[in-house]
Amino acid sequence: xxxxxxxxxxxxxxxxxxxxxxxxxxxxxxxxxxxxxxxxxxxxxxxxxxxxxxxxxxxxxxxxxxxxxxxxxxxxxxxxxxxxxxxxxxxxxxxxxxxxxxxxxxxxxxxxxxxxxxxxxxxxxxxxxxxxxxxxxxxxxxxxxxxxxxxxxxxxxxxxxxxxxxxxxxxxxxxxxxxxxxxxxxxxxxxxxxxxxxxxxxxxxxxxxxxxxxxxxxxxxxxxxxxxxxxxxxxxxxxxxxxxxxxxxxxxxxxxxxxxxxxxxxxxxxxxxxxxxxxxxxxxxxxxxxxxxxxxxxxxxxxxxxxxxxxxxxxxxxxxxxxxxxxxxxxxxxxxxxxx
Amino acid sequence: xxxxxxxxxxxxxxxxxxxxxxxxxxxxxxxxxxxxxxxxxxxxxxxxxxxxxxxxxxxxxxxxxxxxxxxxxxxxxxxxxxxxxxxxxxxxxxxxxxxxxxxxxxxxxxxxxxxxxxxxxxxxxxxxxxxxxxxxxxxxxxxxxxxxxxxxxxxxxxxxxxxxxxxxxxxxxxxxxxxxxxxxxxxxxxxxxxxxxxxxxxxxxxxxxxxxxxxxxxxxxxxxxxxxxxxxxxxxxxxxxxxxxxxxxxxxxxxxxxxxxxxxxxxxxxxxxxxxxxxxxxxxxxxxxxxxxxxxxxxxxxxxxxxxxxxxxxxxxxxxxxxxxxxxxxxxxxxxxxxxxxxxxxxxxxxxxxxxxxxxxxxxxxxxxxxxxxxxxxxxxxxxxxxxxxxxxxxxxxxxxxxxxxxxxxxxxxxxxxxxxxxxxxxxxxxxxxxxxxxxxxxxxxxxxxxxxxxxxxxxxxxxxxxxxxxxxxxxxxxxxxxxxxxxxxxxxxxxxxxxxxxxxxxxxxxxxxxxxxxxxxxxxxxxxxxxxxxxxxxxxxxxxxxxxxxxxxxxxxxxxxxxxxxxxxxxxxxxxxxxxxxxxxxxxxxxxxxxxxxxxxxxxxxxxxxxxxxxxxxxxxxxxxxxxxxxxxxxxxxxxxxxxxxxxxxxxxxxxxxxxxxxxxxxxxxxxxxxxxxxxxxxxxxxxxxxxxxxxxxxxxxxxxxxxxxxxxxxxxxxxxxxxxxxxxxxxxxxxxxxxxxxxxxxxxxxxxxxxxxxxxxxxxxxxxxxxxxxxxxxxxxxxxxxxxxxxxxxxxxxxxxxxxxxxxxxxxxxxxxxxxxxxxxxxxxxxxxxxxxxxxxxxxxxxxxxxxxxxxxxxxxxxxxxxxxxxxxxxxxxxxxxxxxxxxxxxxxxxxxxxxxxxxxxxxxxxxxxxxxxxxxxxxxxxxxxxxxxxxxxxxxxxxxxxxxxxxxxxxxxxxxxxxxxxxxxxxxxxxxxxxxxxxxxxxxxxxxxxxxxxxxxxxxxxxxxxxxxxxxxxxxxxxxxxxxxxxxxxxxxxxxxxxxxxxxxxxxxxxxxxxxxxxxxxxxxxxxxxxxxxxxxxxxxxxxxxxxxxxxxxxxxxxxxxxxxxxxxxxxxxxxxxxxxxxxxxxxxxxxxxxxxxxxxxxxxxxxxxxxxxxxxxxxxxxxxxxxxxxxxxxxxxxxx
Lengths: 340, 1188
What we know:
The structure holds two protein chains of two kinds. Chain A has two domains: 3-309, Alpha-Beta Barrel (TIM Barrel); 315-340. Chain A contains twelve helices and twelve strands. Chain A has helices spanning 32-40, 53-68, 92-104, 118-131, 151-167, 184-194, 229-239, 256-265, 274-279, 283-298, 319-322, 325-335; strands at 10-12, 15-17, 21-23, 45-52, 109-114, 135-139, 173-177, 198-201, 209-211, 216-218, 246-250, 269-272.
């Protein structure tokens, strides 16, 4: 059998992708040349790095603070810097990147946005659409540290956000979710009702580490491990069929096998970031080849036929998804075949 | 306001014209002319074309001498060329100016006239500099206001082209250069109308060209030189008429008319004041007022001072004038009179018109001394007298030679229709910026004439700024500070405690106070005198808690956009809605490019401010029992009490001549009397957490945090809150240790807290020192500090001077300077004084270190208990290495002579004592102390000998030099890398024992951040707005190439032990030593609290490799170069992108930033390789590697 006979096309956010392998947001996506190489390596789409509203605000405020610092203090030095005509501080740089990516690529370009004010979300979403993005992924990165904030509030905030962004866009919108919700299925339904066309499972929060010698909290940025995939497979399988939104998995997809599992759990696309950062963009070719080989070996001709094939709805033992894992470990045989 | 009108200062206005009319602009920073060069550089970086349609080439030179040379060369090659300068800079240009004039070359240079350094340096305005250049043969044209400066800049250029004489166009530094006014800048059409293209082409045709070769500038012999010198006479004779014609042509196109000598006043004036510069406007205003009182007075404004046209002058003076007072804004010590006076006297002497009015001369306004209508009236009154004083002064009280005229300060000519506002602010609170903005809004949004002038104090941290704003329906000629304000704002509540802010308030004025106390509470918090003034003057009193509003908006200490709307609301210069709209428009214009968040925050501040503004119901009774605190305590020395204290409270103008030293010599150790209380938070020690490492003491830029080890008995009588801990020194067991902060001297920079390595085990956010609000602890900590100072220091000879831990116990002899909070330079200076301060002489280049080190009113260099301490002097900017070398040579000669005398008279003195004195080993602290004791014995012995013996008297006078002295040469990178490099190079090559400390901030910090050759590639600086394209000069490498110079590159924040070691080695090395010290600086654009972390990153990234080159190692057969930091461990961008000077290029030109970063990374690698190679060479032959 040859590669030609295998159909890897998938449908995500209303677009037909040539492959379910999507390159997710990473520093690699900041370079149009790298994006081109991703397309050449067989990516079905790319998700650009996020436009961070807070970063834009912070950079502006910082620049202002330090340009003004110590000015008009002393007669000989009423200022310390030349004030340039313009600064590339707003979203312009990002929007230009979207435009250039669109011009350079044949595959869909999904932009990503992380806002911090309601006005910022909608304004930047609108600008991103105007810049030509095929779709927008909302990178909702919110840590509820306020002890008085109740879960319902947080969830409502997500819904309102999706509704507000959708109201000003015509391109499809995906929402990248955190894994920490009490009733994820019901919440996912509400997000879908609010207009989300896809849900991306899950955001990886950077968890700070401790430096014991310096007694300092240090930012820790670790690439994902394949073991992280299991959580995502689990919830994809549960959500599949319960929400109308497309599902995407990001975090822990490192190999062709991983991608196949993602498909079978019910996702439309499998997103790769850490694997590409670790092994280079050409790793995508290897993942794709692995997928194809496995499919050939196992008689699959399209990915669509496997999508959701091992979801909660499709497996013989849905209890496997519903019970706590340790029970399965302790008495796996006893559990097999038990009523859901 | 019409579209043609703009609100700007003279520096910008002149730069606009000069930029438009020139092709080559050679610049060098010097106050107060620097902004002209900065504008030119910025416009060139924005590719703004000149009148020819091409972008001028703007080049920064290494000195004004260099700029003048480049100007001369560019002129000779046929370009329209200019430069901007002032003061010492103009002096450096003089040799070239003679040449340019001698070659009859059209050119204009623009001078913001400034004092020359005489008994002291002064950055302020007078005409001493331009008068020093009056012999150069340049035509000299004076502007009296911002508008005139713009107009005459153009007239000078056109007249120069026609007359072929170069023109020095000048206007008063600060008073005009920095005054913001509404003007109509010459338009491109007007410029075209005045600039004759044929004359430009004629200038080019005279240029050197190999296509039509000539030789110009030949050496002349006695046979023809004199005659050749006279060939230019026709050009000078023709010049005045050419200038007048140009003025007339300009009047035709602009409607603004000028005369070579402009007279204003009574047609039948009997008394006339003759002067030039901004003071002429104050005289004009006074004449207007006196005319209404029927006085027959007038003012003659001299515009073309050189060539001085006697005919035009005589034509301009009313025939009725019986007395002329000629006022010069300069002093020519030893002359018959000042220059303008002498010209006027000579003019009448040469006149055959039969006019012989009485002419008297006077000096005024030196170094920006106020020149008010009251003083003008005093002059007019004086020349009414039968025998008026000649060679008088006005504006000061001369009780020594009695030259001064008395004046009545109550006399005023202020226009009642002009609103006059005075604002007291803190340098960092944005007050000046807000007022510049307000005056621009009023100038551009209303029909009012406007004037803004800003006064700064001499400190870089916690400085007081006073903004003087005028606006009204009539033109404003008040070239003096507002002394009768209709609006007074005090943006800092603590000022009430030390400054009489209401002294300027007119009866019925409005008083706005930024107060943490509300309208019901504030009254009782005011000092008694403030309450009295408010009641007596019937002031309307408003308060706002601007800091609270600022805090709620995350604006920190900047309250500009909170106080500004209050001013608009209270002054009612615009309807409130219009004012708010105009302020917001201005915010978008100013801050829009810095992002929406900045705009939003400032607009929110405007909206919130007005809702927090409250009027205070003023009681009729004075209730406060407290008043302003005295400037200095009663126990301060007499000079500090009687002289310094007046300067401290802003009343130095009242000091008479007799109060001041006649030769610029001042006592040291005076900052300690000035308790500035500028920090809101200060560090507080936690003895339980402290490991007593001394790092905080080392990095404190202001010497406000100190350690002492002492016997427990010393704690007797300690204040209740005084803290101590068991001393953690093995050799000082049983003793106590205290780390004490001087709360009233601290600037709150937090460097100490950031550098503290000890953390509280229960709460890691806490360290061994933590910031606490000053108000809560001021009183007890003040007592603790006083108690701490009285505890004896540990004996110096018992401490290890090579250990940071021990060095913290050495008394600093440099304390509480006016440097910026968190300064990166002063910790090095302080450390040097701890080690050698009791025997050091300092030659200090002009720059930051000479300002915080030697700017009045107070002096941070101080003395120890024995009265010894650093002796300090500043000569110039460019000559500091030579200046220091001179000190060394003098000492060496004196030591030699003293030894010769000792040798010669050894038997009479005591042979044993004399021999030991000659050969004493002074390489250790103990050895030096022993020599001091011997010198004391020598002096006692000499005192008992025959006082008539010249040998005895000489030896007595020289005895102290027998104790080892340490000569230090301090300066910044602008000095060492640029203007003073030639001298530094020579001094290093000389082999003499001097220690050079280069405080390398990689930019001209003192003049506001201009590029030097120390500026790294890719950093943005003024004059390098597009990021510096070339790499930083490797000064260390250049010095190492001599082989006999001790060289070290140090960074205290990266390695304090390395810094200490290098400084000690440098001092011990018996030849020249060069220490290049990384000094973080506000001009780098980040929070200075992280200065030490940045220093570490600079080293880790390879930008600042630590090294020592010790020639003495070569003598031991070792490689003299030791690389003290390893290969880079972090990428360069991790260091540079913490700083605005680099990130602003990323934000403004990302492609250029990326390219320059890549080049800079290459620089790091290349240099590392070179150093590694050198460090691995065999010392024996210098070309083989030691080992592989």
